[in-house]
């Protein structure tokens, strides 16, 4: 699912699940009835409530215009959940979705535009730090990540379909291996990750997939088990429930996601032109 669609769904969900008032410490907030509209600490560039939210782990807080005089608003991320924060005159804030007179959510497009890049950059950084196997040239201009299981027929189809892009040097595919489909998926992933040349081992598995693929490892070391667990946790964190789970940057540099084997008309979007 594209990040933009994911954000829109998450933001609208906030209107039902996350509507709340956030207060700051008594020594930071103005007294009741004070005429302060922004509750900004002396010498600070951000309102106190925004600093408090950042202290609680909310990231990428950026102001946006609500079109309402005196109503300040910020878009931010709580983990991977986008959120809109509306500052009140008494130094508190409401977290949720603003609703228009027609009953429809407001500000979703504004929040999406502000948050999709930092959210995408965070996802991309986490994938880069994951335990992946390179498929394709190191200097390929386009990188595509895919959560793959050594026993996944759709992963194998995607691998095969992507060969023209990869073999021509246009795309480097990074396989983030997980073991979720069959009992020997973990030991096959271990055989690939533990091989002297993991890229060659991956190639062997894909080329011989119809014959059973790579021979499973006899055992899984603690190090490799931790790598696979980390990969599987990241897969779940990004919302993938099966393989392949594909993450790529579109032509505008925005990070998007695709579940399963993509249809042929989606391949240029994911892999670029041949």
Automatic annotation (TrEMBL):
Q: Which organism is it from?
A: Pandoraea commovens
Q: Cite the source lineage.
A: Bacteria, Pseudomonadati, Pseudomonadota, Betaproteobacteria, Burkholderiales
Q: Quote the cellular component terms of the Gene Ontology held in the record.
A: periplasmic space
Q: Which family does it belong to?
A: Belongs to the thioredoxin family. DsbC subfamily.
Give the range the annotation lists for the signal sequence: 1-25
Stored PANTHER family: THIOL:DISULFIDE INTERCHANGE PROTEIN DSBC-RELATED (PTHR35272), THIOL:DISULFIDE INTERCHANGE PROTEIN DSBG (PTHR35272:SF4)
Pfam families, per this entry? Answer: Thioredoxin_2 (PF13098)
What keywords were assigned to this record? Periplasm, Redox-active center, Signal
Name all Thioredoxin-like fold domain ranges. 138-267
Q: What does this protein do?
A: Required for disulfide bond formation in some periplasmic proteins. Acts by transferring its disulfide bond to other proteins and is reduced in the process.
Where this protein primarily resides, as one coarse class?
Answer: periplasm
Quote the protein name from its UniProt record. Thiol:disulfide interchange protein
Q: List where in the cell it is found.
A: Periplasm
User: Which SUPFAM superfamilies does this entry report, sorted A to Z?
Assistant: DsbC/DsbG N-terminal domain-like (SSF54423), Thioredoxin-like (SSF52833)
